[in-house]
Amino acid sequence: xxxxxxxxxxxxxxxxxxxxxxxxxxxxxxxxxxxxxxxxxxxxxxxxxxxxxxxxxxxxxxxxxxxxxxxxxxxxxxxxxxxxxxxxxxxxxxxxxxxxxxxxxxxxxxxxxxxxxxxxxxxxxxxxxxxxxxxxxxxxxxxxxxxxxxxxxxxxxxxxxxxxxxxxxxxxxxxxxxxxxxxxxxxxxxxxxxxxxxxxxxxxxxxxxxxxxxxxxxxxxxxxxxxxxxxxxxxxxxxxxxxxxxxxxxxxxxxxxxxxxxxxxxxxxxxxxxxxxxxxxxxxxxxxxxxxxxxxxxxxxxxxxx
Length: 306
What we know:
By secondary structure, the chain is α/β, with parallel strands linked by helices. The chain has a domain of 196 residues: Rossmann fold, CATH 3.40.50. Helices cover 53% and strands 10% of the residues. The protein has a 5-stranded parallel sheet with strand order 2-3-1-4-5, sandwiched between helices. It has a two-stranded antiparallel sheet with strand order 6-7. A hairpin with a 6-residue loop joins strand 6 and strand 7.
């Protein structure tokens, strides 16, 4: 009887169809306040792409380690389902993500969905397993600009009111994001924010080619003419004139102080060097923004700690 049952199970193993998640999602990722919203909405100007609100739930699920733990536990059960049917880790992850893929496909219709939850960069390696046909576009922004933006964002996160926390958070995202880029290889492209502002067409040609899409001018035009502000829990789009563009690419952001500089050097200077190396690959050794420093200075929000 046992021998007969083994034969039946062997036949089932051969007949079990492979699990496949074919959703061609686009994940725009990076540190908060780094320009991920701007790039996602720019990409949505392409006829084949669509975006909307951040999902957030993928990070909550994957960062908890629930799927990985479930896989590890079930794969060790002798004669359990995973072992008996030779389910691979990739198939397990893809099966877990099929429901989310259905949600995104339903929202996008005939287009490809662009998810713009920045924190997904921290779990990009796991998402790449669950969504094997997904592509990741990482935005990295100058550390001083990100820290200044964090402190004026109005968010409830600790980094929105504590300068040291803002510096450490940005450095952590840069370090983790660049490590994920190395791990994912041709599944991720990393773009410096200043290149988006100064060379929108060059950036969009590279990103669209990376996504396997024909070039359209709408995304680059959006980047060159609009600014997206997702602070305070709402997305607003405003025209991007020359003065606003100068502020975005300034080497020293408005409201930057000696106290903030000391805090930044202490907690994030090593990550800034890594960022500048990336930026030089796009803009050259002496990019034009070096001399662009805005004339006005804005005071930091009350209660900000450095």
